[in-house]
């Protein structure tokens, strides 16, 4: 059997499995809608008002991708006023961020990758071009777009070593799916090599860099920074201010343990804790009590006149809160999640600590390690020691933060490269 037939067979098997899964998904949505009287995801797919203009569809799977593509969205709006941008996302946090930062744009939920739903959704939106942020390889969606003759571009593309290792087990199937994408605009040479080895046509691959270096990450004016400090009860006596961002289950106990040690050495230490998922806030508060840490919720009142640690149960503030820090820990890295975006605190010139699991940001992490712009720890004891070291050695902390900021500034420009290549495609295809 040749490669093309194997690809078609793999696609047929995938569609059979997704057809079976779709039965259970639709039953669940019917139950959710009728029994709990909540709007089902099916309804939310089609409720958004689609502008009466030619559509450019940008898919940003979650909050991180929404933030990454923010500079590109501004440039697309400026360069193509004759088109309307529609943003699709797959999570509530992503949806909320689009509404917060781009309230004038239409935002919709991305469909399940199943027959009928995906095709109806694409016909409903009827985009002239689809921009997929990072690595969103949904087989039926991509093949349907190809059949409808809608060009697809992958921007800020990345392939982790783990993902590459998995996908290479299905070479014909993956090659068949990748043939539906007109352009692969990859973050790095490693990502470009991976996507080529998976079967993308070489002439379609470009290395544009990482657009996350171009993101403004909640730039904070001196006036707003002072307002944030007042809201969170931060005064000149508090030191160090430790901002912990994007933590996951398995990390919360490490943070509580480490903060107890830091506070013993620095009684005026202030913790601002921003978990990845708001629904974990109550568990963290309960866990904190076992470490004699009494968290106060960000949402409980303004200003929060308290020396207690703050746990942030609101969305979309992390980039701004990093500006308040003396020391930053970026979560998803002490447990095998793959890490989160260290460019956010780096853009504020802050010294950063992470765990060893940074696979999702391997190239960025390697660059920071090479230039000694990041500290890596493995557990609560090492985390506490790193925090106390940086708190005691302010010049070292400042130098680490300055180097990180220089890395960010030196790698900017990916958005400009991306928009130029998209413009060339639009001149040819649209």
List keywords for this structure.
430 residues, seven-stranded parallel β-sheet, single chain, globular, 2 domains, alpha/beta, Rossmann fold
Short description:
The chain folds into two domains: about 230 residues, 3-Layer(aba) Sandwich (Rossmann fold); about 190 residues, Glycogen Phosphorylase B (Rossmann fold, 3-Layer(aba) Sandwich), CATH 3.40.50. It is about 50% helix and about 15% strand.
Descriptive notes:
This protein is of the alpha/beta class and 430 residues long. The protein folds into 2 domains: 1-209 and 413-429, Rossmann fold, CATH 3.40.50.11720; 222-411, Rossmann fold. It has 18 helices and 14 strands. Strand 4, helix 6 (139-147) and strand 5 (152-157) form a beta-alpha-beta unit. The longest helix has 33 residues, at 3-35. It is globular.
Please state the average pLDDT score: 91
Quaternary state reads single chain
- CATH-wise, what's the superfamily of the largest domain? 3-Deoxy-D-manno-octulosonic-acid transferase, N-terminal domain
The Cα radius of gyration reads 23 Å
CATH topology of the largest domain: Rossmann fold
Alpha-beta content class: alpha/beta
Uncertain segments: none
What is the number of helical segments per DSSP (H or I, 4+ residues)? 18
Question: So what's the overall shape?
Answer: globular
Strand tally is 14
Task: Assign the CATH architecture of the largest domain.
Answer: 3-Layer(aba) Sandwich
């Amino acid at each position: 059997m040749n490669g093309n037939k194997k690809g078609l067979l793999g696609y047929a098997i995938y569609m059979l499995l997704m057809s079976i899964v779709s039965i259970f998904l639709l039953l669940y949505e019917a139950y959710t809608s009728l029994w709990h009287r909540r709007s089902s995801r099916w309804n939310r797919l089609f409720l958004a008002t689609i502008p009466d203009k030619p559509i450019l569809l940008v898919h940003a799977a979650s909050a991180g991708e929404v933030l990454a593509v923010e500079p590109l969205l501004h440039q697309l709006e400026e360069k193509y006023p004759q088109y309307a941008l529609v943003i699709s996302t797959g999570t509530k946090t992503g949806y909320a961020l689009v509404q917060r930062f781009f309230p004038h744009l239409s935002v919709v939920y991305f469909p399940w990758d199943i027959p009928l739903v995906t095709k109806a959704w694409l016909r409903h939106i009827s985009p002239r071009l689809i921009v997929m942020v990072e690595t969103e390889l949904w087989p039926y969606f991509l093949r349907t777009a190809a059949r409808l003759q809608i060009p697809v571009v992958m921007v800020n593309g990345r392939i982790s070593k783990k993902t590459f290792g998995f996908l290479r087990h299905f070479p014909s199937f993956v090659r068949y799916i990748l043939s539906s994408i007109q352009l692969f605009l990859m973050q790095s040479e490693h990502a470009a090599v991976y996507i080529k080895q998976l079967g993308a046509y070489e002439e379609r691959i470009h290395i544009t860099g990482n657009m996350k270096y171009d993101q403004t990450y909640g730039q904070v004016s001196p006036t707003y920074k002072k307002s944030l400090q007042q809201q969170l009860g931060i005064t000149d006596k508090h030191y160090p201010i430790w901002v912990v961002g994007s933590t996951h289950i398995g990390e919360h106990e490490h943070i509580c343990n480490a903060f107890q040690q830091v506070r013993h050495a620095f009684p005026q230490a202030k913790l601002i804790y921003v978990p990845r998922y708001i629904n974990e806030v109550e568990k963290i508060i309960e866990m904190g009590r076992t470490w004699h840490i009494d968290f106060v919720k960000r949402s409980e009142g303004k200003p929060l006149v308290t020396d207690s640690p703050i746990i942030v149960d609101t969305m979309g503030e992390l980039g701004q809160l990093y500006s308040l820090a003396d020391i930053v820990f970026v979560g998803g890295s002490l447990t095998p999640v793959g890490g989160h975006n260290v460019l956010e605190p780096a853009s504020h010139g802050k010294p950063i600590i992470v765990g060893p699991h940074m696979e999702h940001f391997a190239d960025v992490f390697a660059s920071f390690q090479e230039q000694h712009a990041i500290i890596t720890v493995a557990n609560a004891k090492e985390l506490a020691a790193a925090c106390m070291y940086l708190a005691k050695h302010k010049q070292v902390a400042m130098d680490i933060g300055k180097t990180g900021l220089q890395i960010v500034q030196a790698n900017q420009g990916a958005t400009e490269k991306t928009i130029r290549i998209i413009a060339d495609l639009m001149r040819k295809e649209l």
